[in-house]
Write a sequence for this structure.
């Protein structure tokens, strides 16, 4: 929002580019990764759907921003986009935290690690060691 009051292009690039990119990155990463903790069996599907949401939002958002910019000017368009990002951040703050697992519960990653403790194919160093001794 502060970029709409910038007196020159350099301050606009810093405030909108760097700070806006950082803010959108901090908004995107938690939204995509948080859903993976809630779904164990279909984790890849859910992560894919949440990632597709950003692409769909980009397709829808581009013509809306173009129409806003044509009708209101770039300063007010930027303020409306900032308000939308603030609304997304406030909605993100309402995300329910993932409950902690009990000590006896295992997730799919722990099960896979246990299965891979004794691999069928050994690495070359251990095979050479067995042959030499």
């Amino acid at each position: 929002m502060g970029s709409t009051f910038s007196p020159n292009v350099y301050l606009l690039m810093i405030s909108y580019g760097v700070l806006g990119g950082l803010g959108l990155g901090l908004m995107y990463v938690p939204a995509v990764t948080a859903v993976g903790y809630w779904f164990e069996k279909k984790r890849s599907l859910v992560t894919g759907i949440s990632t597709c949401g950003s692409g769909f939002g980009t397709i829808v958002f581009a013509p809306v921003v173009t129409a806003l910019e044509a009708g209101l000017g770039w300063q007010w368009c930027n303020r409306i986009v900032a308000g939308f990002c603030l609304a997304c951040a406030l909605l993100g703050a309402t995300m329910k935290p993932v409950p902690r697992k009990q000590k006896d519960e295992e997730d799919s990653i722990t099960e896979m690690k246990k299965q891979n403790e004794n691999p069928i194919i050994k690495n070359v160093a251990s095979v050479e060691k067995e042959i030499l001794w």
In short: Residues 9-38 form the longest helix (30 residues). The chain has five helices and no strands. The mean pLDDT is 76. Residues 4 and 75 are 5 Å apart (CA to CA).
